[in-house]
């Protein structure tokens, strides 16, 4: 997998590293290889949700993959990075972007296509990992966990991201799902898990299809799903 080259842009506080990436791309600025925030006040999750990023307790970063501009299957870039993160953090990965430990959410990956030079669409992959929060909001306390709890020691944002990127360098080129699948399968936590579709229906995962889509049981039938949200917590 080809990672961006160049220096990291480390910022003390931002609303969202994805927003910073969008701004730099729109201005035609030379892109850093990584945008890392020490404190993120309005982090983004999938399907328009926010991502909790308290100061000192979270890894919040965005990686602009300009080398994969106009990629025909941009979701595979995020899935490849998620598999690399699972390997680096010794956790599991749940379709399409959740990092999990013991059924609880440790982090997540968000891929957005942002306008780049010459009208191209650049995949920008955001990474969020709970490093050491102690107090989650009540609605998250039973379904979220931290890397510190998992490994038994406090984790550093820069070192954690460095370990993920080092693992990502060894990932196959994300040309097709078949390229990524052998690595993903080592950490997969998808089958049997519940998902909520954008229409509000609940489905149960059967596996992952040939294009990296979710194959799930819905209403007694096997269906192919491109977008859905993993449901965490008791059944």
Characterize the structure shown:
The protein is globular and about 50 Å long. It starts with 7 loop residues before the first strand and ends in a 5-residue tail after the last strand. Helix 2 packs across helix 5 and helix 2 packs parallel to helix 6. The longest helix is centred in the middle third of the chain and has 15 residues. About 2% of the residues have low confidence. By secondary structure, the chain is of the alpha+beta class. A hairpin with a 2-residue loop joins strand 12 and strand 13. It is built from six helices and 14 strands. Helices cover 25% and strands 30% of the residues. The strands form three sheets. A seven-stranded mixed β-sheet has the order 1-2-5-9-8-7-6.
**What sort of overall outline do the alpha carbons produce when their principal axes are compared?**
globular
Low-confidence stretches: 45-49
Helicity, in percent?
10-25%
* Class from secondary-structure proportions: alpha+beta
- % residues in beta strands: 25-35%
List the strand order in the largest sheet: 1-2-5-9-8-7-6
Largest sheet properties: 7 strands, mixed
User: How far do the termini sit from each other?
Assistant: 37 Å
Features:
single chain, 235 residues, alpha+beta, 5-stranded antiparallel sheet, 6 helices, 14 strands, 25% helix, globular
Summarize the helices and strands and which ones pair or pack.
Layout: E1 8-11, H1 17-26, E2 34-37, E3 43-44, E4 50-51, E5 58-64, H2 75-89, E6 92-94, E7 98-101, E8 104-115, E9 121-130, H3 138-141, H4 147-151, H5 157-169, H6 177-187, E10 194-196, E11 202-208, E12 214-218, E13 221-225, E14 229-230
Parallel strand pairs: 1-2
Antiparallel strand pairs: 2-5, 3-4, 5-9, 6-7, 7-8, 8-9, 10-11, 10-14, 11-12, 12-13
Helix pairs in contact: 2-5, 2-6
